[in-house]
Amino acid sequence: MVDPPLPRFTLISGPAGSGKSRWAEHLAETSGLDVIYIATGPSLEDDPSWQERLRRHRDRRPPHWQLWEVGGELSAALARLLPGQLALVDSLGTWVAAHLEADQAAWSRCCQTLLDLVQRGEVHLLMVGEECGWGVVPPTEVGGRFRERLAALQQQLAAEADASWLVIQGRALNLTRLSLPVPGVS
Fold first, then answer.
1. Which residues contact 181 (CB under 8 A, 6 or more apart)?
2. H or E element, residue 60
3. What is the pLDDT of residue 182?
4. pLDDT by residue (tens digit) across 11-22?
5. Residue 11: which of 111, 92, 108, 123 has the closest Cα?
């Protein structure tokens, strides 16, 4: 199923409800490494459906995993990791959403800082991201900005990834083995 050892950087993407977080959790659990689960989502205490989603994620994680709830401060969290640790980042979409109000220059700096940390390669990284461009074109400017920023970021990260997975309908496809890069796409 998964070839040991775990690659340095693995990108896992898929649509909502596809099983991408569960696949990332499986890769982390079978790695044998100390896992730090880095949650980028907001707490949203007044949103019962979000709280239920967080509960489901919490309930299926092993109790010995560390949990860092970092919101939009993903890069600062990655910079604190120690060699030999494994960070499971869930998810890139909520991290992008935390920075939607940033102007393009600030957003570019955020992305470059993240890419620099990924390229440093001192820890094993599993990053979960949403494939949001498969649906309806967002009718709002902020929705379009989210989609464009997330898609561009994931293409940049995929160029750095040692392994890439697409999870859809509860099935994990190894994109590294089954695909060719699109010319001109970073």
1. 159
2. helix 48-60
3. 87
4. 999 998 899 999
5. 92
Other C-beta atoms lying within 10 Å of the C-beta of residue 79: 13
Query: Tokens 């050892």 label which residue?
Result: 5
* CA–CA distances in Å: residue 107 to residues 42, 104, 146, 160: 19, 5, 11, 19
* Both structure tokens of 19: 């099983």
pLDDT digits (tens, 9 = 90+) for 89-107: 999 999 999 999 999 999 9
Length of the chain: 186
- Which helix H or strand E contains 88, and what residues bound it? strand 86-90
Any idea which fold 9-178 has? Answer: Rossmann fold (3.40.50)
Domain spans of the chain, in order of start: 9-178
Burial 33-47 (b: 16+ CB within 10 A, else e): bbbbbbbbbeeeeee
